[in-house]
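Thread amino acids onto this structure.
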C-alpha cells in the first residue's frame, strides 16, 4: 500500500482508499496527522523566511518552545529541569542520557530491565576518532533486572536494594537505572506506582541517577503528559522525542536535573538539533492542548472507551485472548499466540485499519490512536478489530453475537 495524504486519524492510499490509523507513526503523531493548528503555525512561520535550521544557535522559536515547555508542562507539575536538545531520535536522547550519567558518576554499569526497548544505535561514536568526544562513552556493562511483575512474587526493586547493599552481590553500583514506565515495544507492561516509588527511593539513597525513557509513553500517550506522573516522582533525567513536535517533526529533549548538567561545550553534539519547524509545531500543540485540563479529561474518556471495547472483545475469545494490557491510549489485546496477533493485524488491514503488534512473541495487538481521535472514529476502529476477531476466531455461538459486539463498541 502506498499512502498519499493523511488527516488526523485517517490515512489515504494512492487509490483513494481510506484507513483508520491505530499506529500513529509508532507514537510520533500523538496530535493526529496534519494537525490543523500545528500545520497552520508552521506554514505561517515558513512564509516569513524565519530561520529553519539553527544548529545549536539560539532562535526565537526555540526560546518560545522552552518558555512554553517550562510554563505549561514543568512548572504546574512542580518539576524543575534543564533542557538539552539532543540529536532528534529516541535512541539519540537515550544515548545522551547514559553518556551523561556515566560521565557524572564515573561509573559504567547501567541497570536496565527485561523487555526494555531503548533504540537501535550504539556504534557510531566508538568509530569516531576524536578523543574529546569518545572520552564520555564506554560500552560498559548492563545489568538486566526483571521488570515489575516479570516474575510472580519477585520484587525486583527489593532485589536491586539487596544488590546495592551487599558488597559481594557481584553487581557494581551503576551509573544509572533506566526504565520505561510503560514498556511499549516490550508488550504494554505497566509498572506499578509502588514499584516506581521504591526505585526512586533506592536510587536516591545510593546516589544513582534514575532515568525515565518517555520516548513512547510520554507526551500524553499514557493519559498524562509524563507517564511517571502517576507515581508522583521526579526522575533525575527524562528522555523525550517522538511526539514533542506536533507534526511528527524530529526533535528530542533530555530533561536533566541541574546538578547533573556537567556537559562541557560541544561534548555531546550533532547537526540536527535546531529544527525550528519542530519548535514551532511543538509550541503550538503545548499551548493548544496542555494549558488547561480539558484535553487530559477527554483523554481519560477515550481511555475508557478503548478499555471497555477491548475488554468486550477479550471476553468473547478467552481461548485466543489472555486479556487487555496497557493504559491511556496505549492499550492492547494480549493473545496466547503471536500467530493469532499477526492474523488479526492482517485481517484488520484488509478492512482498512492500520495497527501493529508488540511483545517478546509479537503476542500483543498494540493500539495507539491519535490522542485527538474523535470518539466515534475510535469506536469504528475497535469495531474493525472486533469483526476481525469474529471472522478469525468465532464459534457458532459467537456468530449470533456479532451484531452485539459491533454495537457495543
Ligand atoms: C521507549 C523507546 N525508547 C527509544 C526508542 C527509539 O526511538 P527512535 O526509533 O526514534 O530511535 C523507542 C522507539 O520506539 C521507544 O519506544
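Threaded sequence (409 positions):
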Amino acid at each position: 500500500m502506498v499512502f498519499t495524504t493523511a488527516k488526523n486519524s485517517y490515512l489515504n492510499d494512492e487509490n483513494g482508499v481510506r484507513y483508520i490509523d491505530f499506529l500513529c507513526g509508532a507514537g510520533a503523531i500523538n496530535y493526529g496527522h496534519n494537525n490543523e493548528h500545528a500545520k497552520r503555525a508552521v506554514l505561517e512561520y515558513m512564509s516569513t523566511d524565519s530561520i529553519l535550521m539553527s544548529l545549536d544557535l539560539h532562535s526565537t522559536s526555540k526560546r518560545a518552545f522552552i518558555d512554553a515547555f517550562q510554563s505549561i508542562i514543568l512548572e504546574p507539575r512542580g518539576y524543575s529541569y534543564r533542557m538539552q536538545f539532543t540529536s532528534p531520535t529516541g535512541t539519540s536522547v537515550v544515548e545522551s542520557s547514559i553518556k551523561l550519567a556515566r560521565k557524572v558518576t564515573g561509573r559504567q554499569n547501567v541497570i536496565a530491565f527485561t523487555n526494555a526497548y531503548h533504540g537501535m544505535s550504539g556504534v557510531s561514536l566508538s568509530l569516531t576518532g576524536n578523543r574529546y568526544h569518545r572520552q564520555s562513552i564506554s560500552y560498559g556493562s548492563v545489568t538486566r533486572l526483571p521488570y515489575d511483575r516479570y516474575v510472580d512474587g519477585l520484587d525486583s526493586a527489593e532485589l536491586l536494594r539487596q544488590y546495592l547493599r551487599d558488597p559481594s552481590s557481584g553487581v557494581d553500583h551503576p551509573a544509572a537505572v533506566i526504565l520505561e514506565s510503560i514498556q511499549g515495544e516490550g508488550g504494554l507492561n505497566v509498572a506499578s506506582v509502588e514499584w516506581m516509588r521504591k526505585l526512586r527511593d533506592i536510587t536516591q539513597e545510593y546516589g544513582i541517577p534514575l532515568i525515565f525513557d518517555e520516548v513512547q509513553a510520554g507526551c500524553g500517550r499514557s493519559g498524562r503528559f509524563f507517564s511517571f506522573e502517576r507515581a508522583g516522582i521526579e526522575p533525575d533525567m527524562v528522555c523525550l522525542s517522538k511526539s514533542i513536535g506536533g507534526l511528527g517533526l524530529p526533535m528530542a529533549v533530555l530533561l536533566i536535573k541541574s546538578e547533573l548538567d556537567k556537559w562541557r561545550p560541544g561534548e555531546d553534539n550533532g547537526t540536527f538539533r535546531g529544527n525550528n519547524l519542530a519548535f514551532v509545531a511543538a509550541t503550538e500543540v503545548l499551548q493548544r492542548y496542555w494549558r488547561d485540563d480539558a484535553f487530559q479529561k477527554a483523554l481519560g474518556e477515550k481511555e475508557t472507551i478503548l478499555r471497555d471495547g477491548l475488554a468486550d472483545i477479550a471476553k468473547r475469545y478467552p481461548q485466543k485472548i489472555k486479556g487487555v494490557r496497557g493504559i491511556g491510549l496505549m492499550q492492547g489485546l494480549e493473545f496466547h499466540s503471536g500467530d493469532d496477533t499477526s492474523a488479526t493485524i492482517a485481517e484488520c488491514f484488509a478492512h482498512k485499519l492500520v495497527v501493529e503488534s508488540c511483545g517478546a512473541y509479537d503476542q500483543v495487538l498494540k493500539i495507539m490512536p491519535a490522542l485527538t481521535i474523535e470518539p466515534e472514529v475510535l469506536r469504528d476502529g475497535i469495531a474493525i478489530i472486533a469483526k476481525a476477531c469474529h471472522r478469525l476466531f468465532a464459534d457458532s455461538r459467537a456468530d449470533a453475537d456479532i451484531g452485539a459486539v459491533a454495537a457495543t463498541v
